[in-house]
Amino acid sequence: MPHDSRDDCLGELFKRTQPVERSVNVQQITMHAQSKHSSPKVRRKPQRRRISMTIRAGVVAATITLMVSFFAGPLVSEQGIAFADVQAQIERVRSVEYIETSYDGEHPARGGNETTMELTTAETISLLEKHLPDATQELAEEIKFELNTLKSLQDARVLYVRRVRIKGKHLERTDQLFPRATVQAYTAPHYTVRNARNGLIVSFSPSEKMRTVLRKQVVINPETGDQSESSIPRIPPAVDFFARFRRIPTEATEQVSERNIDGHMVVGFRSVESHGDETWTRTHWVSIDSKLPIEVVTEMHKGTELQQRWVHNHFKFDRELPDQLFDTDAPADYKSEDGKIYGYSR
Amino acid sequence: MDDESLERIRNGDTAAFTLMVRQHEHAMLRTSFRILGQQADAEEVRQCILLKIWQEPKNLPPAERLEAWLYRCVVNESIARLRSAKRQHDRNSMLAETLSDSENASHNHEADEVRDALEKLPAEQRAILSLKFDEQMTVREIGRVLEKPHTTIQAKLTKAIKELRVRMLTPSRAGENDAT
Q1: Which residue from B22, B43, B108 is facing A198, i.e. has the nearest CB?
Q2: Interface list for B 12-71 with A (CB within 8 A)
Q3: What average pLDDT does range B158-179 have in this prediction?
């Protein structure tokens, strides 16, 4: 067939409109279905219909749970929670809020030591406390929330603290709580909205009344200082929070003993991935009651050295989040411009 | 995936089965999605096929034919499901179901356009287009999947592309382009 350049356009269009890549829950198939290996008398058709309905409704039947706890061994907690249950529970979530804190692994804490452009956590807390008495009620709630978060981290070697809010599977807003610029007055923190449905990534700075549409990325080589600029690849059609849970093969999780976090009994599921000389270890601490995460800890090691550590906690699921939190349009008095994301290559 | 791994699957080895799933799961989903137009249905088709494989592993072909065989299973199962759905539901109820699912309704405007255009084509044409543009197959490879001569596939592909372009170039869209 002769090549038509318009075929390339169609190919590109197909590429851009592919479905969300969700990994198959193999455990659900192998555990929930009786294979011919173990039971030659299996009645295929009713079984298939039952499994299909189970998946569609997102409900794990009691009989299946029993089978899982019998067969699954280390993948299922003593309380009968399998990581597959957690993934299924996450899929039902309509909104989520959490705090993401990044800790430096081996290097001195940022905040005052490396650059004078950023406030330390103590300075940020002091600034917030100074402006709390004059704040409106709505603003005061925000400031109190930030104060509580930062006070709990005051002595830690923190790189950054972000508050992440997700609505549906395609709207995400990230507010940078720390570090802040050296501002004299309290302003709402810098924040970024990602709309996976229309592919927009927009950053807002309320103090400067600036809206920046992020279209390019600049990757800096830390060794040579060379920079390479490219368009930001089209963002996936669902926010990463859900994809992260889906991506983890259930059979790759190892169960960690239960413990108590802030009054919640939790059980841990740990997975390890290697990329070159980097090892990524993720531990999902999951509430035994709700089967939803209470804390997720990710550690990145190079060799034996811990390079960076991320903690996601203060989870709040299915709260009402107003649409205006995720608005990507510029308010009337804002300036708007195109911008770039800067990052270091590894 | 080699014959030894397939033999392990036939003997109930979950690790080998998982490896096969990870290698083919996204391609299976993409192909089914193009035929059915809905992510949830495509995921169900994929799940059903994998479940069937796990239950009846003796049906697995030799390694060199595995990929084409899996695609064929997906195409056949998706078309069968489509026919079954058409018998059971009228078109309006299906659309209503689609639109009620916020994520599946559309990733974006482009996805809507492609889906709408594909929806008007016969299921076999959708399968051929998906194998060509999603999976980057040659007409010979598509022929192996659908068990048809490559000359037939070539003719069908040409027709499918032509019809897809006609569907996507609606009068209103053409007017918008002219205006800009």
Answers
A1: B108
A2: 12, 14-15, 17-18, 21-22, 25-26, 29-30, 33-34, 39-40, 42-44, 46-48, 50-52, 54-58
A3: 62
Distance CA A65, CA A223 (A): 52
As beta bridge partners, residue A97 has: A165, A316
Q: Pick from B103, B152, B163 the residue to mutate for testing the A interface (most A CBs within 10 Å).
A: B103
pLDDT score recorded for residue A106: 55
Biggest CA pair distance of chain A: 75
CA dist list (Å): A165 to A202, B96, B110: 15, 29, 26
CB A164 within 8 A of CB A219: no
Give the separation between CA A33 and CA A265, rounded to whole angstroms: 31
Tokens 């940020």 sit at which residue? A124
- Amino acid letter, residue A211: R
- Strand-pair partners of A194: A172, A201
B18 to chain A: which residues are within 8 Å by CB?
A: 26, 249, 251
CA distances (Å), origin A191, targets A23, A315, A330, B55, B95: 31, 19, 13, 50, 37
Phi, psi of B71 (to 5 degrees): -60, -40
pTM, full prediction: 0.51
Helices (H), chain A: 5-16, 26-32, 44-57, 62-71, 83-91, 121-131, 137-151, 240-247
> For the purposes of burial, counting CB atoms within 10 Å of the CB of B92, is it exposed (0-12), middle (13-18) or buried (19 or more)?
exposed
Q: What is the pLDDT of residues A13-53, one digit of tens each?
A: 787 777 877 778 777 777 655 544 544 333 333 333 333 33
Instruction: Please report the ipTM that was assigned to this predicted complex.
Output: 0.71
Residue partners of A79: CB distance under 8 A and separation at least 6: A258, A267, A288
B18 sits in which H/E element: helix B14-36
Q: Do A24 and B46 touch (CB under 8 A)?
A: yes
| A294 touches A98 (CB < 8 A) | no
DSSP structural state of residue A222: T
Q: Across the interface, do A10 and B25 touch by the CB < 8 Å criterion?
A: no
The nearest alpha carbon in chain A to B50 belongs to A29
Amino acid at site A255: Q
Q: What are phi and psi of A203, to 5 degrees?
A: -110, 140
Beta bridge partners of A193: A173, A202
The C-alpha atoms of residue A147 and residue B79 are separated, in whole angstroms, by 57
Q: What is the pLDDT of residues A94-137, one digit of tens each?
A: 899 999 998 876 544 433 334 444 567 888 888 888 888 888 88
Q: Which residue of A has its CA nearest to B47?
A: A24
B72: how many CB neighbours lie within 10 A of its CB?
A: 18
- Measured between its terminal Cα atoms, the distance across chain B in Å is 51
On the 0-12 / 13-18 / 19+ scale of CB atoms within 10 A, A179 is buried
